[in-house]
């Protein structure tokens, strides 16, 4: 039980929102004269990655798309991985390519990402798609940031002039979220591990996005009363029962929910949106590739 008082915040239900989004995608896929295909590449046997890849494959098939899973051994060489990416680039049945990160240490992820055709880059990680996003041009936007902005748009249809603080500056999450919030006319501040007085900065945020990978780092007294809190973190920590783990975000949820106006839970918040947006990006890529 929480000792932090009553939960005041309204919960943003990413699970329900993503189910709705997937239903819309399935309806659109059913009307296409071709079947969109998503290829997911997993190198090594990290148990957490395996679960994500299995979930992705299941949901891909559920919306009527083709799922191609490529599981490679941990000792795969850079050359073999690059050769697979090039094969997928050339395969007309494949409209989206996702290489699960992180890769084993002996592999060069930057070089692998650079080999993905920007037209099939459903993670939005290539320099071309990152550049399009920064320039405000149409392209493929990283799935987690896209999921966050869809949840925000639904609750805050006009974000003009709101102060947004994004904690975390990775290419996959923090940077693209900041770009999208800027497009929504927020005043955006990006924070990271070198930021001075992070709690005080966070207290200025009308919209606070936590994408740091530190379990429950953002405390209740870092949050402006009534603010909207988006918790991107997925951290596995020891659970109440010995030997079992549980999932927590980057925000101390109970404390934060007593202060915030709107908040995403973990699990059931941003996570399910990521997969739904991966399918949405695959549909977007397929329509562009087939429309030529
Ligand atoms: N829900 C979902 O679908 C997804 C969730 N995630 C989760 O989101 C989180 C972030 O992922 P990702 O961006 O890939 O992680 P990275 O490790 O790539 O980046 C973490 C960022 O957080 C910053 N940071 C780390 N510690 C602190 C600190 N103590 N104070 C302030 N800033 C800090 C780092 O700063 P610096 O740059 O200075 O080092 C860095 O910019 C993780 O928990 C990950 O599991 C990721 C992808 C999808
Ligand atoms: N190239 C690449 N792109 C990614 O987008 C990418 C990646 N690599 N590597 C790993 C991270 C992590 N990630 C998640 C996806 C879904 C959930 C998700 O569905 N979460 C559920 C619960 C999951 C559970 O219970 O384990 C939830 O939050 O409710 C979480 C995390 C994508 N990532």
Automatic annotation (TrEMBL):
Q: Which molecular function term from Gene Ontology is one that the record holds?
A: methenyltetrahydrofolate cyclohydrolase activity
Q: Where is the Tetrahydrofolate dehydrogenase/cyclohydrolase catalytic domain?
A: 12-123
Q: In which pathway does it act?
A: One-carbon metabolism; tetrahydrofolate interconversion
Indicate the segments forming the Tetrahydrofolate dehydrogenase/cyclohydrolase NAD(P)-binding domain, all copies.
142-288
Q: Identify the keywords attached in UniProt to this record, alphabetized.
A: Amino-acid biosynthesis, Histidine biosynthesis, Hydrolase, Methionine biosynthesis, Multifunctional enzyme, NADP, One-carbon metabolism, Oxidoreductase, Purine biosynthesis
Q: Which residues cross the membrane?
A: none
Q: Which Gene3D superfamilies match?
A: Leucine Dehydrogenase, chain A, domain 1 (3.40.50.10860), NAD(P)-binding Rossmann-like Domain (3.40.50.720)
Note the subunit structure. Homodimer.
**Protein known as:** Bifunctional protein FolD
Gene from which the chain derives: folD
């Amino acid at each position: 039980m929480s000792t932090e008082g009553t939960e005041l915040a309204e919960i943003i239900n990413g699970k329900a929102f993503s189910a709705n989004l997937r239903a819309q995608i399935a309806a659109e896929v059913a009307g296409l004269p071709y079947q969109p295909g998503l290829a997911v590449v997993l190198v090594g046997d990290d148990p957490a990655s395996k679960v994500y890849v299995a979930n992705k494959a299941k949901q891909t098939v559920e919306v009527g798309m083709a799922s191609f899973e490529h599981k490679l051994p941990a000792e795969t060489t850079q050359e073999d991985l690059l050769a697979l990416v090039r094969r997928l680039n050339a395969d007309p049945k494949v409209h989206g390519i996702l290489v699960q990160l992180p890769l084993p240490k002996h592999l060069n992820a930057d070089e692998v990402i650079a080999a993905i055709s920007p037209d099939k880059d459903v993670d939005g990680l290539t320099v071309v798609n990152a550049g399009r996003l920064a320039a405000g041009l149409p392209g493929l936007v990283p799935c987690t940031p896209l999921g966050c902005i869809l949840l925000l748009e639904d609750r805050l249809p006009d974000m003009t002039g709101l102060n947004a603080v994004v904690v975390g500056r990775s290419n996959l999450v923090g940077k693209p979220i900041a770009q999208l919030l800027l497009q929504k006319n927020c005043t955006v501040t990006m924070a990271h591990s070198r930021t001075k007085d992070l709690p005080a900065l966070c207290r200025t945020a009308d919209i606070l996005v936590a994408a740091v990978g530190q379990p429950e780092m953002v405390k209740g007294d870092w949050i402006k009363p009534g603010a909207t809190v988006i918790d991107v973190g997925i951290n596995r920590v020891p659970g109440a029962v010995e030997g079992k783990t549980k999932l927590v975000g980057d925000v101390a949820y109970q404390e934060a929910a007593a202060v915030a106006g709107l908040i995403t839970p973990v699990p059931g918040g941003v996570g399910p949106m990521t997969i739904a947006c991966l399918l949405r990006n695959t549909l977007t890529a397929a329509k562009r590739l087939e429309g030529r």
